[in-house]
Amino acid sequence: xxxxxxxxxxxxxxxxxxxxxxxxxxxxxxxxxxxxxxxxxxxxxxxxxxxxxxxxxxxxxxxxxxxxxxxxxxxxxxxxxxxxxxxxxxxxxxxxxxxxxxxxxxxxxxxxxxxxxxxxxxxxxxxxxxxxxxxxxxxxxxxxxxxxxxxxxxxxxxxxxxxxxxxxxxxxxxxxxxxxxxxxxxxxxxx
Length: 191
Description:
Number of helices: 5
Largest sheet: 4 strands, antiparallel
Strand order of the largest sheet: 5-6-7-8
Strand content: 15-25%
Distance between the termini: 43 Å
Radius of gyration: 19 Å
Number of strands: 8
């Protein structure tokens, strides 16, 4: 059978947090995207998975559906069990995000209903209870009663960075026509 996976690489901000476009922050408008799986032979009912999932989960999920071994370097979790109704194994699992585009430098952790964001450009931290505040309008980071969860998520991110694999960046030089530059600016890929 055919497996159909529909997702997006990013969302778009429309001034919700004083940003327009994408790739400039880690608020939900920029990073929360749909992930739709269609595989009639393996998933019989439509289901919304409330727990957090990420792009790192796509490869292991497709491997599960194909009956193939998940490559050892894959960092995500297969979602087939969750798609069939048992998503408890996804609870408590952190998802790590970052953006590093010149003056836009953010790090974040999403775990269950909590989201911690650090703006490395200015040192500000944000903490949101996504269940109570899905639009990320009420920053709880400076409230004393949330200091423990803020520190726990920050430490989780630092631990993740410490154990992450390192890859050498390869830069290539590209010659772009003025028309291509205009198109990329219109799409938000160039400032």
